[in-house]
Amino acid sequence: xxxxxxxxxxxxxxxxxxxxxxxxxxxxxxxxxxxxxxxxxxxxxxxxxxxxxxxxxxxxxxxxxxxxxxxxxxxxxxxxxxxxxxxxxxxxxxxxxxxxxxxxxxxxxxxxxxxxxxxxxxxxxxxxx
Length: 129
What we know:
CMD-like, lyase, 4-carboxymuconolactone decarboxylase, 4CMD/NDH-1_regulator
């Protein structure tokens, strides 16, 4: 296990563990066994662990990127959970998703909000206060 991988796993643990990410990684292990290692090393060990932004700020950036990309529902679900674990309030997550309307459009924002609702419901955070 490389130092980059250890650093990435530690960062994932800070953000609530691998959870939904692990399912995505495991689903492709028979086709691309190195893919999850590379994702952990690069995305979490190298990029997410950099100084300059705290974990909550990074998760806001990631949410915006995922919403505008579209078609990345498992990643969006995982990062909404990570945003909550990083200390963002559910209302802040909702506002971040709403902020994407002018840039990503209503369909992608509605899809993202439905995923956020599911994450909030799974964590017994509904109704939002």
